Amino acid sequence: MIYNRISNGSLFRCDSCKLIHLEFNNININFPSEEKYQQFAEYIHELDIEKVVQKNAHSPYHRKIIIPINGGACNYILHAGELSDLKRLCIRQLNNQFPSDAKLEIDFSLN
User: Fold this and answer.
1) Which InterPro entries did the record assign (predicted)?
2) How confident is the model at residue 111 (pLDDT cuts 50, 70, 90)?
C-alpha cells in the first residue's frame, strides 16, 4: 500500500512483511509499527528549518540539519531543501492511500 510518493522518495507498507518503509534519496528507514512511524513523522514536522540550520551553523558538516537515527548511532544529514521534501513525504496520517494505479496527466505544449 503506497501512502505517499514524491520525486525522490516514497512511503509505503509492504504487503509481505507489514513494515512501513520510507525511501528518501539514498536512505531507507523501516518502521515496525505505525506508532514508530508517527513518532518519526511528528519529529520531522516539528523541526524548524531556519532554527536548526542556525543552531548547527558552525558544524563541520556541509549539510546543517542532523536527524539522529537509531538513538544517534547513525545520523541523517540534510540541507534545507531536502528537509522540506522529507516533510512533504512524511504525511502525518496514514489512513489515505495513494492511488497506485493513478496516472499523472499533464497538459503541456512543446512550443
Assistant:
1) DUF6686
2) very low
